[in-house]
Amino acid sequence: MNKKPIANISLDLDNQWSYMKIHGDEGWDLYPSYFDIFIPHVLNVLDELDLKITFFIVGKDTESEENRKYLRMITERGHEVGNHSYHHESWLQTYSYEKIENEIINAEKAIEVATGQKPIGFRGPGFSWSKDLLKVLESRGYKYDASTLPTFLGPLARAYYFAKSDLSKEEKRARKELFGKFSEGFRKLKPYKWDLGEGKTIVEIPVTTMPIFKLPFHLSYLIFLGNISMGLMQFYLSIAIFLCKITKTPISFLLHPLDLIGGDQITQLAFFPGMNVESKSKVEIFNKVIETLKTHYGVVQMSEHHTFLDSKIKMEVIKI
Ligand SMILES: [Zn+2]
To answer: Is the pLDDT at 166 greater than 80, yes or no?
Structure first.
């Protein structure tokens, strides 16, 4: 590994149905999938950039044979797979220990069968997590959790989502902690270890937000800015990287499918915010972002980042 600090890249492989579900659209429970279009597309984009990343996969998506065909390509092309729960419900923190255990184990087994790789990392849907969740992960031999997003903007993102959705009062109540509480903003940005008691720990690798300001700069935000002006996007990203460098914060950079593909290819979601932008423009912004990241950071998948942390870095231990 070179001397540059590390940036890891991961993608939450949310499928068409999970976007429809969170949006409150009918028909999501038929589990429509865009893997046939999205997965070959993203694998080509990553190959072009010579990038290996971590894909967080939802267990439910392994049920169809058609989906499994595409999921298998992810590991065949050298990427890591992580666990993104079985049903992708963004309120895991309200679940009992047993219910969480089922979610994790069922997804883990299904992902291993589908891709030939056992996940060692987890990210909760909608950044949901709890102490019980971390305990389950530790007991299953997971090496890291990646579910925290330290930002003060969670409640704002949630309000925006609700305004754009057709959710009922009932559905909104179930999603009341979607994207996290304001207090999430006080959490640490640098990777650390959760102390789970009885000498047990698990590494936490938070999604990186801007040090000090805790403003998110994952790809969805950069695509949004890049569509206003490429210069503005570059400026925002430069500030984020500058602050990470002076505070010696490694970067955990998050992608979502709709950041990389447009309504021109996924016509079923053409009405979604940001989907009026074509794939070509999104990929162009992504290429610029990766080029900038690579100037300052060694860019790797999450498991590799974890190995480095585990062997080289003395991480802070934090009581839950
Ligand atoms: Zn997700």
So the answer is: no
DSSP state of 37: H
- Residue 92 near residue 85, CB atoms below 8 Å: yes
Distance 201 CA to ligand 1 centre (A): 25
Rounded distance between C-alpha atoms, residue 285 and residue 291, angstroms: 10
Say if residue 2's pLDDT is above 70. no
Q: Considering the chain, what percentage of its residues have pLDDT values greater than 90?
A: 80
CA of residue 198 to ligand 1 center, whole Å: 31
d(CA 130, CA 110) in angstroms, rounded, equals 23
Chain segment 67-88, per-residue pLDDT in tens = 999 999 999 999 999 999 999 9
Length of the chain equals: 320
Please tell me the distance between residue 314's alpha carbon and the centre of ligand 1 in angstroms: 30
Determine the pLDDT at residue 172: 78
Q: Residue 167 in contact with residue 24, Cβ under 8 Å?
A: yes
Q: Quick one: pLDDT at residue 165?
A: 76
Question: Which one, of 126, 122, 178, 182, lies nearest residue 150 by Cα?
Answer: 182
**What confidence category does residue 65 fall into, taking pLDDT thresholds of 50, 70 and 90?**
very high
Ligand 1 midpoint to CA 296 (Å): 28
Q: Which single residue is written with the structure tokens 């990203």?
A: 237
In b/e form, how buried is each residue of 7-18, taking b as 16+ CB within 10 angstroms? bbbbbbbbbbbb
CA distance 49 to 44: 9
**Assigned token pair, 283:** 């990929």
261 backbone dihedrals φ, ψ, rounded to 5°: -140, 145
Q: Is the pLDDT of residue 7 over 80?
A: yes
154 CA to middle of ligand 1, Å?
15
User: How far does the centroid of ligand 1 lie from the alpha carbon of residue 255, in Å?
Assistant: 10
SS3 state of residue 237: helix
CB-based neighbours (< 5 A) of ligand 1, an ion: 12, 14, 125
What is the share, in percent, of the chain residues with pLDDT greater than 70? Answer: 99
